[in-house]
């Protein structure tokens, strides 16, 4: 299974990517009214207003929860959609607190998410992101038949459970270089509450440095 961590370093291009996580625990919080939504609409609105393309990685559970949003995002030429497993479990042991997918279930988990996305997006990509960025040789071997390419990152946005937007902005602006792939989150809620507030200064700061925003597909084709 191929893995990419960044694009070519010869152009001032950067790919902003956003993960839409949803786990069984997060879904319970939605059902019990502890969280209003795990769709950060303000973030997507700001990307649209500033004409910034992005690659969005969706878990199967998120697609189940928000199928109309998936169709809407798929229809927007600014965005391309990839997958992020079905329920955001880790593909190695001790991947933060995500739990672990059994080896025998790895391929079916990823294929389930791919099938779901194909039903909602007629031009879905075969980009894929491991939850928590956790993988090893076993995971790469087991997922090879899925026909997906893993997209890693070289700039973690650090927006998960952030306490304010400032450290997110500083993290991205400090570490971006030519060909960088930045990972942030689009589910908002209690897990990534400041991404939408951070995105405008991130966009302004990177543009001031001369970066052009592209999707992962454009980055790798460039």
TrEMBL record:
One Pfam family linked to the record: Polysacc_deac_1
Residue ranges constituting the NodB homology domain according to the UniProt record: 12-214
Listed InterPro entries: Glyco_hydro/deAcase_b/a-brl (IPR011330), NODB_dom (IPR002509), Polysacc_deacetylase_ArnD (IPR050248)
SUPFAM superfamilies: Glycoside hydrolase/deacetylase (SSF88713)
PANTHER family reported in the protein's UniProt record: GLYCOSYL TRANSFERASE-RELATED (PTHR10587), SECRETED PROTEIN (PTHR10587:SF134)
Name by which UniProt lists this protein: Polysaccharide deacetylase family protein
């Amino acid at each position: 299974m191929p893995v990419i961590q960044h694009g070519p370093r010869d152009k001032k291009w950067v790919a902003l990517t956003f993960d839409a996580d949803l786990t069984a625990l997060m879904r319970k919080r939605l059902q019990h009214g502890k969280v209003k939504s795990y769709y950060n609409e303000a973030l997507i609105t700001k990307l649209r207003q500033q004409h910034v393309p992005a690659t969005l990685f969706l878990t199967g559970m998120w697609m189940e929860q928000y199928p109309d949003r998936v169709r809407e995002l798929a229809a927007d030429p600014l965005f391309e959609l990839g997958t992020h497993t079905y329920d955001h479990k880790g593909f190695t042991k001790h991947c933060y607190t995500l739990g672990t997918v059994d080896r025998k279930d790895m391929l079916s988990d990823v294929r389930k998410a791919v099938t779901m996305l194909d039903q909602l997006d007629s031009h879905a990509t075969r980009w894929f992101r491991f939850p928590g960025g956790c993988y090893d040789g076993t995971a790469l071997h087991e997922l090879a038949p899925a026909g997906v390419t893993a997209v890693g990152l070289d700039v973690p946005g650090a927006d998960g459970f952030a306490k304010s937007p400032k450290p997110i902005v500083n993290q991205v602006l400090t570490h971006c270089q030519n060909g960088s792939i930045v990972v942030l989150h689009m589910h908002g809620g209690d897990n990534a509450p400041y991404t939408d507030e951070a995105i405008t200064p991130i966009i302004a700061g990177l543009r001031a440095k001369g970066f052009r925003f592209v999707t992962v597909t454009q980055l790798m084709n460039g």
